[in-house]
Design brief:
Elements (H helix, E strand, L loop, with lengths): L6 E4 L9 H16 L3 E6 L9 H14 L5 E5 L4 H13 L3 E4 L3 H12 L11 H5 L2 H9 L5 E4 L5 E6 L3 E6 L7 E3 L7 H11 L4 E5 L6 H10 L6 E5 L2 E2 L15 H6 L4 H9 L14 H7 L10 E2 L2 H14 L2 H15 L8 H14 L7 H11 L7 H7 L5 H13 L6 H15 L4 H12 L7 H8 L1 H18 L1
Parallel strand pairs: 1-2, 2-3, 9-10, 11-12
Antiparallel strand pairs: 4-5, 5-8, 6-7
């Protein structure tokens, strides 16, 4: 490609939501553009009118904006370039690099069956119209309204390129049939539309999934036939599930919006996707956007497929949660409560102070924003239930009630409601009863939050406050009495 301003593009088809694979492709393009002061172009490839939808387009744009992958130009719509696509097809005709084909679908199918036998994929177009219909005759028949396609005349030789990820890749042109570039209804085939658009938008680098490798020789031939420089190609390996198969819905969530709704943070998602097939050259795993931009290069992209690990994503998300303040997390946590249909954590000043205390308490264990709603209700509301498994494990001892009563009495007499005082009181009581501290801590945890797992029980007690702790112990005693 000629030297000059770097221009890259992300060109999704609006036939579905923004998949994590597409998001990673967009991210790699965005990082490269930002690294080199280039231009990131967004193009919606919507020529497939039957499968494209405005809803999917909106979801793609929303997903990119949520990830912070802002585009510099666009969104352009491929369908708007139809006149240019047709003009490029006719330019190929004028240059003798394409020809009109009047073979009907029925004729092609008949010849395909005859040539292929039991293998329907063995047939390649036999160039009947190239060999029997002159350019003049073809023009006359087209002018008369006879249906036809326009086929590209593949030259002899090989088509090769230096892929920025895979190195030298080549195809024998004999293995490429004379492919259609313009359908009989006047609409372009994908390969022509893409090349025409990339030329018009002056794209210098094409970063995309390696499922497009087979399209690349056709596109290179079109660039050459149209007299245009060929861009640098970088084909990124696919993303796999844990079973080694291509990532799909059977592996769980695949759309960016699904992870957003599960409480994944955009910065964590960007960090995770960047490392999904790219090596930053260090053992570090947590990077700001600025650090990713400074380090990113096409040379760092691995040629082998990457495995999508949801547990790793959640771990990374947890690291980002821990770095955020309660004030930053507050609107996200409230949204998570609303999404889960959990009790409103409140918005009054007093409630906000308590909410912030609970956020700080829970964020060290949270892996997603939804974890705050999943585990936070007992810390913010009296409307919570006891987990059956926790009750069965930690309230099974006949001494549970008297021990909780003893804790209630010990806590009631405390002048200083602090972690240190609470711990001293509990451990002193345990020594007096001749039991390990765990015999008191575990039943107390169930009484206070209804769960077998929580942050440190003394931290929990301080955040809840004296009155709530004492009332919850009394509630637990009533529950135990009712259970007999």
């Amino acid at each position: 490609m000629t030297s000059g301003e770097m221009r890259v593009r992300f060109a999704p088809s609006p036939t579905g939501y923004l998949h994590v694979g597409g998001a990673r492709t967009a991210l790699f393009n965005w990082l490269l553009a930002r690294r080199h002061g280039g231009v990131f172009v967004l193009r919606i490839e919507d020529t497939d009118r039957e499968r494209s939808s405005d809803a999917h387009t909106a979801a793609i744009l929303d997903g990119l904006q949520w990830l912070g992958l802002t585009w510099d130009e666009g969104p352009y719509h491929q369908a708007d370039g139809l006149a240019r696509h047709v003009a490029d097809a006719h330019l190929l005709l004028e240059r003798g690099r394409a020809y009109r084909c009047f073979c009907t679908p029925e004729q092609l199918e008949e010849r395909r069956r005859a040539a292929a036998g039991t293998d329907p994929h063995a047939f390649r177009y036999d160039r009947l119209c190239l060999n029997t219909v002159s350019a003049e005759e073809g023009a006359q028949r087209a002018a008369a309204g006879e249906p036809h396609t326009i086929r590209f005349h593949v030259p002899e030789g090989r088509t090769e390129w230096d892929d920025a990820v895979h190195g030298r890749i080549g195809f024998a042109n004999d293995d490429i049939e004379d492919f259609v570039v313009l359908r009989s209804d006047g609409t372009p085939i994908y390969n022509l539309a893409v090349v025409s658009d990339d030329i018009a938008m002056r794209i210098t680098h094409v970063i995309r999934g390696d499922d497009h490798v087979s399209n690349t020789p056709k596109q290179i031939l079109l660039y050459q036939a149209l007299g245009q420089p060929v861009p640098t190609f970088a084909h990124v390996p696919m993303i796999l599930g844990a079973d080694g198969k291509r990532l799909s819905k059977r592996h769980g969530a695949t759309a960016v919006g699904e992870y957003r709704n599960q409480g994944i943070l955009p910065d964590a998602m960007v960090n995770f996707l960047a490392l999904l097939g790219w090596n930053p050259g260090t053992e570090e795993e947590l990077f700001t956007r600025e650090e990713l931009i400074a380090r990113f290069s096409l040379e760092g992209i691995n040629s082998k497929s990457a495995v999508f690990d949801p547990a790793k994503l959640e771990w990374m998300n947890g690291q980002y949660i821990q770095r955020m303040s309660a004030t930053e997390l507050e609107p996200l946590v409230i949204e998570a409560f609303e999404r889960a249909g959990a009790p409103d954590p409140g918005s009054a000043a007093a409630d906000r102070d308590r909410l912030h205390a609970v956020i700080d308490l829970l964020k060290t264990r949270a892996r997603t924003i939804d974890d705050f709603a999943r585990y936070g209700t007992p810390y913010l509301s009296e409307d919570f239930e006891y987990d059956a498994a926790a009750v069965a494990k930690h309230w099974k001892d006949g001494d549970t009630a008297p021990r909780l009563q003893a804790l209630h009495d010990a806590f009631t007499s405390l002048d200083d409601w602090s972690e240190a005082s609470l711990e001293t009181a509990l451990r002193g009581l345990a020594d007096g009863l001749g039991v390990g501290a765990g015999k008191l801590i575990h039943p107390l945890r169930v009484a206070l939050v209804g769960q077998a797992v929580s942050p440190g029980i003394f931290e929990v007690a301080v955040v809840l406050g004296r009155e709530r702790v004492l009332e919850r112990i009394r509630r637990a005693l009533r529950e135990l009495a009712a259970r007999g």
